[in-house]
Design goal:
Distance between the termini: 39 Å
Number of helices: 12
Shape: elongated
Largest sheet: 8 strands, mixed
Helix content: 25-40%
Length: about 375
Amino acid sequence: MFSPSLCTQRHNFVVDFVQQHKPKKVIDLGCADCRLLRRLRFLRDVEFLVGVDIKSSSIKKKMHSLAPFPGEYLQPGNKPLTIELYEGSVIEEEPRTKGFDLATCIELIEHLQLAEVGRFSEVLFGYMQPTAVIVSTPNADFNCLLPGRPKLRNPDHKFEWTQVEFHSWASGICGAYGYAVEFTGVGKVTNGPESSGFCSQIGVFKRESSRSNVPPGDEVTEDVPVYSVLYRMEYPSLQNNNIFQRTLVNEVLYWAEHLRTQWAASQRGIGPEQTQDSQGLGAAAEGEQPFLHEGFLCIPLSSFMSCPRVRELSGSMVHLRDLLLGDPRVRLIANSVALDMGEEDPGVQSEEQADAWGSGRHGNVAVEEGIKEDWGAQVCKP
């Protein structure tokens, strides 16, 4: 009946909310196959993403799809992102679920027994106390418009609320725990009665005041974790000093190889415009020119400031020098990056050897392989 599908519309609603309000810590209760989490991980304002489901089998089917792409190790993001997946019940108090900016409960509550809804409300709004909560659930008033006019849409649904029942529950939450709620939904048909509302009704709760769910005089006991961790992944981020250093050095070595290619071509009388790897590298002429010194081609640090990425990461030539000092993959000579040219000057080598220099196939192979191995070691395993 709906295009895009109702599930997609619900997830779109959450994504739009996150893009607008930019919460840093988000928890998805009843995450199932992690479909919503896979979309939220691309919103890099989110720094901590958690999924919870009582069925570990559902999580395990797709949890590895939350791993970073290989390119994210080569170009780490500016902000950190950690993803954790737990097996556990939403009616249990788990200390690691406290302190979130947003909790989502997308088509979850109707899978609970009606007698468990009160406990779920207490745990979510009284114990976890997230800043905002998005709850979506089937609208029973809409069922008369669905094929077959089902009483319940899914065999696992224990109940489905009418709009009046949903509003009544939400109003009770607001009064008991200090939240305000706005009602909306997704899935509307143009030819249905206005009273039928949305196919999926949504309540957006925002905390107005902080309340303790511990009565005065009661002793506060230490929380003990009850959920099982199924998966944890830390994304590569420039906030990590080791990853920042690797990223900067990779950019410097990559740029150095291009500058060496340009220099080798000039030794053979080929202009920069004739080399395949000269993409914008004429800007290097703004800095000092490379020079030979005791078997090394020395590329002044000022030349690297023509690389936008190096300039972005280092900020200044002085800071760039400080960052490169002591790194075993970079040799500095007289404020220059020194590349080992071997025993012979490539300008006087055979044409085949000079082509090897010009194509970047010679020189830092061992270094490049070492970098690849280094990146591979960053992949976190659950």
